[in-house]
Specification:
Strand content: 5-15%
Number of helices: 9
CATH topology: Uracil-DNA Glycosylase, subunit E
Pfam family, one: UDG
Distance between the termini: 20 Å
Radius of gyration: 16 Å
Largest sheet: 4 strands, parallel
Helix content: 40-55%
Number of strands: 6
CATH superfamily: Uracil-DNA glycosylase-like domain
Structural class: alpha/beta
Order of helices and strands: HEHHHEEEHEHHEHH
InterPro entries: HI_0220.2, Uracil-DNA_glycosylase-like, Uracil-DNA_glycosylase-like_sf
Protein name: IclR family transcriptional regulator
Organism: Flavobacterium tructae
């Protein structure tokens, strides 16, 4: 795994498209139990080299009810975005993740995590890539029907503060989805602690 992560860190495939430079951000270990697949690093993550080191990360950790110690323990959780580098900023926010990363690296990383029990698919890019034809017409419907993708995949909206309006409109997310997400994460992490 260390060798593969080093290869990713040295990847320059998209360099010509990245105005802010190349800085792949990924964290994983052979022992990872939960894999979080987001979109791409934002500017803060790009500058600090720490995945989910922003308000979105705070919201995500709150959704999961875990602290930073657990979140950044790669023996428990792997953090692998669809695009490993900050894609830059467009007119309405960050640009989409570069399309080269997932086909080039994801399968190789996942193959080296035999104990991974759950993959959180955060946002439309990861859901389209991993759920394929089984994805619903909208992200809202995909998330609402999260049970269709269990036990391995768990689709979620992006935890960006910009999505607070979406959460307010979709109260079922707080009432139905988050309790099941938290329970599933807790069981996996508790079981991993018992196996030590």
């Amino acid at each position: 795994m260390e060798e593969l992560l080093e290869q990713i860190k040295n990847c320059r495939v998209c360099e010509d498209y990245l105005k802010d430079g190349v800085n792949p951000v990924v964290a994983a270990s052979r022992k990872s139990k939960i894999v979080i697949i987001g979109q791409a690093p934002g500017r803060i993550v790009h500058n600090t080299n720490i995945a989910w080191n922003d308000k979105s990360g705070d919201n995500l950790r709150n959704w999961l009810q875990i602290d930073k110690t657990v979140f950044y323990n790669t023996d428990k959780i792997a953090l692998m975005p669809m695009g490993f580098c900050f894609p830059g900023t467009g007119k309405t926010g960050d640009l989409p993740p570069r399309p080269e990363c997932a086909p080039l690296w994801h399968e190789k990383v996942l193959r080296l995590m035999p104990d991974a029990e759950l993959v959180l698919l955060i946002g439309q890019y990861s859901q389209k890539y991993y759920l394929g034809d089984t994805i619903k017409n909208t992200l809202t419907e995909t998330v609402r029907n999260f049970e269709d993708y269990l036990p391995y995949f768990f689709p979620l909206p992006h935890p960006s503060p910009r999505n607070n309006i979406w959460q307010a409109k979709n109260e079922w997310f707080q009432e139905k989805v988050l309790p099941q997400l938290r329970e599933k994460v807790k069981v996996i992490l508790d079981n991993s602690s018992l196996k030590k």
